[in-house]
Amino acid sequence: MEQIQIRQPEEYVKGIPLIKFFAEAIGPLESFQPLPDDLLISTYPKSGTTWVSQILDMIYQGGDLEKCHRAPIFIRVPFLEFKAPGIPSGLETLKETPAPRLIKTHLPLTLLPQSLLDKKIKVIYVARNAKDVAVSYYHFYCMAKVHPDPGTWDSFLEKFMAGKVCYGSWYQHVQEWWKLSHTHPVLYLFYEDIKENPKREVQKILEFVGRSLPEEIVDRIVQHTSFEEMKKNPMTNYTTIPHDIMDHDISPFMRKGKVGDWKTTFTVAQNECFDADYAKKMAGWDLGLCSRLGVVSSGNHSRGSV
Fold first, then answer.
1. 96: part of which helix (H) or strand (E)?
2. Average pLDDT over residues 119-136
3. Which residues are catalytically annotated?
4. From 3, 37, 100, 141, which residue has the greatest number of CB atoms within 10 Å?
5. Given this model, what pLDDT does residue 39 score?
6. pLDDT score for 296
7. In the chain, where does DSSP find H-type helix?
8. How many CA atoms lie within 13 A of 254 on its CB side?
9. Type and span of the H or E element at 18
10. What's phi and psi for 139, nearest 5 deg?
11. How do the domains of the chain map onto residue ranges?
12. Start and end of every Sulfotransferase domain (predicted)?
């Protein structure tokens, strides 16, 4: 396999910073033509993408765990914008994937192939509390060396707040996909809701994709998609990726998977600064979105204001 030059600086595409290799994939994506029964899994990074991907693959395989062991998750659920030297791109993997296909993306709407929207491809979107995302993303930058050097936690947090990390602004991402959910077939889920009651959320997903499974199969899916089970499963924990690309000695890909773990990392000053910035950037947004992501209403939010 061709040696990947690690720690390359981001490249900007339409104002969005991306991993250098992924930026090279955006042009070819413009001509991507989805199949009618494709399902897109969309998230900002570190928001439960692998978790929901595994849930969906288990649903598609009727709860058969052995079938879900057929390949690592990034083969079973191709990563649309993935590109790296010497490795099949997301598009190439997709061509080899039998329908009905599950497709993963982190792209903001400005970079998403228009065909996915024109053809009304179903989307499952997952949003997660911004502070937990920031902490998880920092550790991911440290271990996944396709990213630029993250620097210190303090400097990374500043870049995250300014939208100067790969995939750009968290705020813009969750807001534009929330807005799209009013006009497009999008099931908008929250990481915290799945943690709180995974069975309820799996039932929502089943209904959205037009499938039904016996309760004992749903229970099995919930059991085998728990964080603990997925962390030790080489088909979901990314340990099959070469060590020089993802260094699990620095931080495991599946690290903690907790709600509110940001409290162990943020200083008081960082938290106050983040809260003030968050209040400004989320002002005027639908209370349903804001409250589910753990922000206290500042009085500026009103339902239906998206």
1. none
2. 94
3. 106
4. 141
5. 97
6. 40
7. 20-23, 26-29, 49-60, 65-68, 73-76, 90-95, 114-118, 130-143, 153-161, 170-180, 191-196, 198-209, 215-224, 227-231, 268-281, 287-292
8. 19
9. strand 16-18
10. -65, -35
11. 15-258, 267-306
12. 36-285
pTM for this one?
0.88
Name the residue type at position 36: P
CB-based burial, 16-41: b 16+ in 10 Å, e otherwise: bbbbbbbbbbbeebeebebeeebbbb
C-alpha distances (whole Å) from 195 to each of 52, 76, 108, 171 are 11, 23, 25, 22
- Residue 190's alpha-carbon distances to 47, 48, 243, 292, in angstroms, are 9, 9, 31, 7
With beta carbons less than 8 A apart as the criterion, state whether 149 and 9 touch: no
Query: For 220-249, what is each residue's pLDDT tens digit?
Result: 999 988 877 766 766 665 556 665 676 665
Torsion angle defined by CA atoms of residues 171, 174, 178 and 181, in that order, rounded to the nearest 10 degrees: 150
Q: How many CA atoms lie within 13 A of 98 on its CB side?
A: 3
Mean pLDDT of the chain: 85
The candidate with the shortest Cα–Cα distance to 131, out of 161, 110, 159, is 161
Could you give the dihedral angle defined by the CA atoms of residues 23, 187, 224 and 213, in that order, rounded to the nearest 10 degrees?
-140
**Phi, psi values for residue 65, rounded to 5°:** -65, -35
How many Cβ atoms are within 10 Å of 227's Cβ, its own excluded? 15
